[in-house]
Specification:
Length: about 375
């Protein structure tokens, strides 16, 4: 088995929804603000004010990106996922041994089988000792927001709780951690990015995994990471930029490594090239079945982040994952099915034969970090 599937059939979008989303994506392709082939540009973004956030597989990836690059990321928002090394069985000489069975079992559904938090802290220490991630002492200065819905039937809340415990073990003071899990309407939130007024009913566990809980998750998250902010825009005045992700992947092999050819960037008017003051940058990662391949523009325009970013001079980077098939792998063999990514998830269990997926050398982490360095003017 490769990617852990959602436990209910309702979590898989119907064919008509996928078709409709594909038409929407094509519309955005032909009528959007920029060509999908445009290279990612440089903007006046402060490299000391970079944060990362994500939902579900994007939460696991946000957690991995944060810990791998803790010297350059000042905070993380973790929604319905996270716990560094959750799918790792052991650290090896050239990477880690990670198992899909751990991901779909203990990490998502049976947290009573998870190891004590000290096991995951040791993985961090071992990877740092090999020089594969930044020194973990950097993590202690971070600000962290974590969220788990009480009605979530996809990723058990205990996994997110252990993620919070690991941050405390790594030295993050309790005063710098916001953990939200209970005070929402009714039964609480299902497996979703939560919004004030868009999406499914609050306790749903179904596509598009964006739920209306009358709660401004983007606002609380960004203010946890950056401190008090100006109120959000009613209608953002910034622009969406489509950019080419291929240049950030070895051999431009995006599909084989679970990445789409095109990513997206939200740029407030105050953050355009030549702005007199630097802006901040937040990386926002969709979950499984939430990429533009499935939802069109929905995730990168409807989760509430752009509204806050627009009035607070925050550039938002929306990298995109891809649903990899066997035919897109460089070689087909007995392990091919184990290395596909049929639901377009971020790599948090080592698919694509990437044994360093949760380190700085992981293909997806390296690609996203190269995007960050490009936007902030730190890299080519």
């Amino acid at each position: 088995m490769n990617r852990p599937p959602p436990p209910a059939a309702s979590a898989v979008p119907s064919l008509w929804r996928v078709a409709a989303a594909s038409l929407l994506a094509l519309s955005a392709w032909f009528g959007g603000c920029a060509s999908a082939a445009d290279p990612l540009g440089r903007f006046p973004a402060d490299p000391t004010q970079v944060s990362v956030a994500g939902i579900s597989s994007g939460a696991f990836m946000a957690n991995q990106l944060h810990i791998a690059h803790s010297a350059g990321i000042m905070g993380a928002g973790i929604v319905a996922g996270g716990l560094f090394g959750c799918a790792v069985d052991s650290v090896t000489g050239d990477g880690v041994l990670a198992l899909a069975s751990l991901a779909v079992g203990p990490c998502m559904s049976v947290p009573t089988l998870l190891k004590p938090v000290a096991f995951y802290a040791q993985i961090v220490a071992d990877l740092a000792a090999k020089g594969w991630i930044d020194p973990p002492g950097n993590v202690a200065r971070s600000r962290v927001y974590l969220f788990t819905g009480q009605a979530d039937t996809v990723v058990n809340s205990r996994t997110v709780e252990l993620g919070a415990s690991l941050y405390r073990t790594l030295g993050v003071p309790a005063s710098q951690i916001a953990f939200r899990d209970r005070d929402l309407p009714g039964a609480g939130a299902g497996h979703s990015w939560v919004t004030k007024n868009f999406g499914n009913k609050c306790d749903a566990n179904a596509s598009p995994f964006i739920n209306d809980c009358h709660y401004d998750q983007a606002g609380e998250m960004l203010q946890t990471l950056y401190g008090p902010l100006q109120p959000p825009a009613g209608q953002p005045e910034g622009r969406i930029v489509a950019f080419d992700q291929k240049e950030f992947v070895p051999g431009a092999a995006t599909a084989a490594n679970g990445l789409s050819d095109t990513g997206y960037l939200f740029v407030p008017k105050a953050c355009e090239t030549g702005a007199p003051q630097p802006c901040r940058l937040t990386v926002t990662l969709h979950g499984c079945l939430q990429s533009a391949e499935v939802l069109g523009t929905e995730f990168y325009t409807k989760v509430g982040v752009n509204e806050w970013a627009d009035t607070n001079r925050i550039i938002v980077l929306y990298p995109q994952a891809h649903a990899t098939t066997v035919s897109e792998l460089p070689a087909q063999n007995a392990s091919s099915l184990l290395n596909t990514n049929p639901q377009g998830c971020w790599n948090w269990w080592g698919y694509g034969s990437d044994t360093r997926y949760l380190t700085r050398q992981g293909v997806q982490i390296d690609a996203i970090w190269s995007m960050v360095r490009r936007v902030t003017g730190q890299g080519n």
